[in-house]
């Protein structure tokens, strides 16, 4: 803080009146005299302190109050608090100069000192970063240019355009990560390092270069000439550069926006860098194994992994993947570990980026019902205790249209929609208008795709070269996906780390779960009509026996940085105790358990677990088969099956909701196995003891054939998934408990 | 000026049909894409993979058997359409002190050893039958996991454009 001497010129009217009227007799009350210093410079979203000096000729006790002058038709430029000795703290919310009025009272008279905050450093785009501080801003969507385009180029009347597309309720104030409070607590990610495992990172980006960790980045492309520079040569946007900006774009440098943890350092590992980069060795290097350049003493608080596999069949879990993830989480940071933050996937209403049998999501009713078409556990790395799966939420505090749901979801974070009708993320983009999501080539591509010149400039006006707030096209307003939710969470992890660097990765995970905000409180869940009965496919919010709220779409809720940092400061390192695991326990039935078709009661199976572990996560490996599945026959057996688990304490979660896309045998084999040692992670039992009797209930939720357009075996345009003619059966169950 | 007017006219012409498609409040480029033409076939050579080039000397009869995967085989993943390679690397979770013994026993090269992870990466020579090798290694006492490396762009960014 820089300060400038300031002599108080004003005394209150009460003081002057008192002096003239009473002539200075002994019982005269003299108003306090108060003086203070102006604040020459402050930083946006960082507290700045000052004090006033007050004296009272009568030696009366003085009380202090402070307020920020709010300009007419404007929001308050900041907030102020003051203690009983005249020390005040001003917290600039905007970049505007401010006037603070300090009121000092002796009980009868009040004097006022005016403190000017003359300049506030900050980031000109931060006011649109709703995930940091949601004021109801629209992050450049529904812009004037957008409506002009609809009217002038698409022939809408103004009334039609507004009726269809104007909707300010897409962003509601307060739906953010409460990072401002974390900043007020002095947590900015300082001292923390984050690995961004992605397509690349433009390490010389104007808003990133100050926060690039030296000598840690890797370029894994075989013929890369500079192995320590993962800058992408892509032209139409570099995913990792945008992800990095969400985590740690520089704050208070007068350009762009800022990252969630603007004092953390990031490094890039381009595991998604193109052909040949996704090898076993490179996977290990992206987890900080020896040889990666990351030492076990480096303060790597998190690896961000905004990627995954989305396919409509169960994949085998990889022992090697787990070994790498375990190493990151338990060995790095001198044994405290790094949190592996992982995007949950974007297949709530489709079968993945390859589109395989996508219309099955409609045929099963998943889209209409509001069930996740792909289950989050189908990507086995997202079904691992050693990864934190993050779902995506919107600026109005609801589920996004795409975020994959499942029992594996740990937490959710802002991400938004497409940045056209509803807000997405404002973050860094490849620099210059010659490359990136904000660029001439991207505009040419989109205009060509739609066949309407000017479409890009109209629909994504902030991205289009020439926008006055994006002069160099170094930023984008359309970044989204669980790819954004993960780095926003990673940023909060770095904030927690900076608040208490002695906490382990597990303790940070515990803090995230314990402080998450319940959103979309009225979420009704989904009840399926099955035969003559009903089955709860998605219970909405539940509260488990340990008091944790859980939801298949949101995990424990939306990440709350302010509360998390507060808890981190109060938490003693080691409070959770060492990690305890049960290792895999085979609790398979002696005979396969058959599941009646289209029957809400289903079939149940129970098993017992020994007490002694307070759960931080519970993994299942399930083998479920149906003969109709054999030979890649088109059967509804995989789509129909629902699996719920109830703990000894009575908490129920759905490993499979039913109506999901499970179209081919496990790992794309044409076998009868819908699931084959398929890994599921259940977070709903967090904090409960593992001991007691567990119940697995399987329900076949459908008795009809399903007709799905789209890709079918053999290439047909439409085909029928025949209702299974034989019962689905549960063959094997193994369980592994993690906790303390 | 004439050019500008012409462009506007063209745009309006295109717009009239596009606008009708937007009555549901969706923008044209967000309309549901047509289903891809690639298909997962029962006749794939191994899971979702189609072999595009077998290692030298391999019998073509191996194609389509589904239970043979030779080191050095080049493939295409029929789901993603991306190329894939059976690299010959096999990763094994085991006591790393036993790495040389396992390599000698099975004719492998020790590529890398990570004692902190109990992980060894072995390299098999071109033409090695990797699924059979995996089964052989799984049967060794003390082995806790085995993965055959297929190098491909399997992971994709979780962003929507």
Mean pLDDT of chain B: 81
Gyration radius of chain B, to the nearest Å? 25 Å
Which blocks of ≥5 consecutive residues of chain B have pLDDT under 50? Answer: 1-21, 34-39
Distance between the termini of chain B: 34 Å
| Biggest β-sheet description of chain B | 6 strands, antiparallel
Overall 3D geometry of chain A? globular
Summarize the structure.
The complex is a heterodimer of chains A (740) and B (161). Chain A contains 15 helices and 35 strands.
Give the topology, please.
The complex is a heterodimer of chains A (740) and B (161).
Chain A lengths: L1 E3 L8 H10 L10 E4 L1 E6 L4 E8 L7 E6 L9 E5 L4 E6 L5 E8 L4 E8 L2 E2 L22 H11 L3 H8 L13 H6 L8 E5 L41 H10 L16 E5 L10 H6 L14 E6 L1 E2 L10 H13 L7 E5 L16 H4 L2 H4 L18 E6 L15 E6 L10 E4 L11 H11 L4 H5 L15 E5 L2 H18 L5 H11 L10 E5 L2 E6 L3 E2 L5 E2 L10 H10 L9 E2 L3 E2 L6 E3 L7 E7 L5 E11 L11 H4 E6 L5 E6 L15 E10 L9 E9 L5 E4 L8 E4 L6 E12 L1
Parallel strand pairs in A: 3-10, 11-12, 11-13, 13-15, 15-16, 16-17
Antiparallel strand pairs in A: 1-3, 2-4, 4-7, 5-8, 6-7, 8-9, 18-19, 20-21, 22-23, 24-35, 25-35, 26-35, 27-32, 28-31, 28-35, 29-30, 29-32, 33-34
Helix pairs in contact in A: 5-12, 12-14, 13-14
Chain B lengths: L1 H19 L28 E5 L20 E4 L5 E11 L5 H8 L2 E6 L4 E5 L6 H9 L6 E8 L3 E2 L4
Antiparallel strand pairs in B: 1-2, 2-3, 3-5, 3-6, 4-5
How would you describe this structure in keywords?
heterodimer; A: 740 residues; alpha+beta; Rossmann fold; Jelly Rolls; 3 domains; six-stranded parallel beta sheet; 18% helix; B: 161 residues; Alpha-Beta Plaits; six-stranded antiparallel beta sheet; 22% helix; 25% strand; signal (chain B)
